[in-house]
Design a protein that fits this description.
By secondary structure, the chain is mainly α. The protein has one domain. Helices cover 77% and strands 0% of the residues. Helix 1 crosses helix 3, helix 3 crosses helix 6 and helix 5 packs antiparallel against helix 6. The protein is elongated and about 55 Å long. The model has no long low-confidence stretch (mean pLDDT 94).
Length: 146
């Protein structure tokens, strides 16, 4: 029997908005100055509004793609999708899909930035923590609102 995957598009949109807000909080008031310092950006750096809008648009597209794929990943963990049993608590599916995605895709990409782009370990840690938590935010929303 093929899997019966249920994708809730309102949950995806909600997860994208929550992720976008979390990113603003993380790289803004919480760790914005630290991130800019680790990126060796001048403290008085002001981005051109056109560049900022382009960057935000690309981030929005990337976040949508992440949430869309994570919605599928969270579903395939559920026994009911395969018709072989009942599901456990929703948070398990959100956690596992976010964690496995972070461990298998984000961490290797961030390690590549250290190895090949000369990024430091402190920046690796800041970005890895952000992506790990952000994937949990997305995963939990998708798992609970299906």
């Amino acid at each position: 029997m093929p899997p019966q995957i249920h994708i809730h598009y309102a949950a995806i949109v909600t997860a994208v908005v929550a992720s976008f807000l979390f990113g603003w909080l993380w790289y803004g008031p919480l760790f914005g100055k630290k991130w800019a310092s680790l990126m060796k950006m001048p403290t008085d750096c002001q981005l051109d509004p056109k560049v900022m809008m382009r960057s935000m648009g690309l981030t929005l597209i990337g976040t949508f793609l992440t949430a869309y794929v994570l919605a599928h990943a969270a579903e395939v963990w559920r026994p009911s999708v395969w018709g072989v049993g009942t599901d456990g608590p929703s948070y398990l599916y959100g956690f596992y899909s976010g964690f496995i995605t972070w461990l298998g895709y984000y961490i290797p990409m961030l390690l590549g930035a250290v190895a090949w782009e000369g990024k430091g370990w402190n920046l690796f840690g800041l970005n890895a923590a952000y992506h790990g938590l952000n994937l949990q935010v997305i995963g939990m929303i998708l798992a609970h609102w299906r």
